[in-house]
Amino acid sequence: MKQKNYIHWTYYESPLGWLKISGNGGSVAEIEFIEEAPSQFYSPVPQYLQNAAQQLHEYFHHDRKQFDIVLDIKAGTEFQQKVWMLMQAIPYGRTTSYLKIAEQLGDKNAVRAVGRAASQNPIPIVVPCHRVIGLDGSLTGFAYGVDTKRQLLAIENPKSFGIQQSLF
Asked: What is the DSSP letter of 123?
């Protein structure tokens, strides 16, 4: 996936670190964890990005289970877009496996391709790739580290998170 230049951006300091939220004039195209506090802020922040930051805040504080944000996922291939759409259908507090998504796509042999598409998801949390785990319940892969994936799952389902199989 090629790097895009976004016309708007803002930042949100989440409990897991700083997030940069970028968009193209009405839709969110990328959310990324950044290592350091931002040194440059875009001003004024457009309403659609303010809304995205507010919804992320609500998510991290257990006040939101579904996002209502206009997304721009056109940067992905057709296959990636299909995977990302299926990930959006995974309910809050639940997980599924890479194999189950591959089966939904009609090809149980596409497990690795699903994993690659998940790793290239430009809008984590809102497109919840962290909810996709190994068939055996293992927390395999996440662009921002398995520990971040574990923390996101714990936010959504703190009571049964320790037993991954129970989340399917």
From this structure: S
| Domains of the chain listed by start with CATH number | 8-60 (no CATH), 78-163 (1.10.10.10)
Q: Is 129 one of the catalytic residues? A: yes
**Which pLDDT score is estimated for 138?**
85
Catalytic-labelled residue, pool 86, 129, 153, 155: 129
What rounded mean pLDDT belongs to the chain?
A: 89
What gap in Å lies between CA 52 and CA 72, rounded to an integer? 13
Q: pTM for this structure?
A: 0.88
Q: How confident is the model at residue 160 (pLDDT cuts 50, 70, 90)?
A: low
First to last CA, the chain: 30
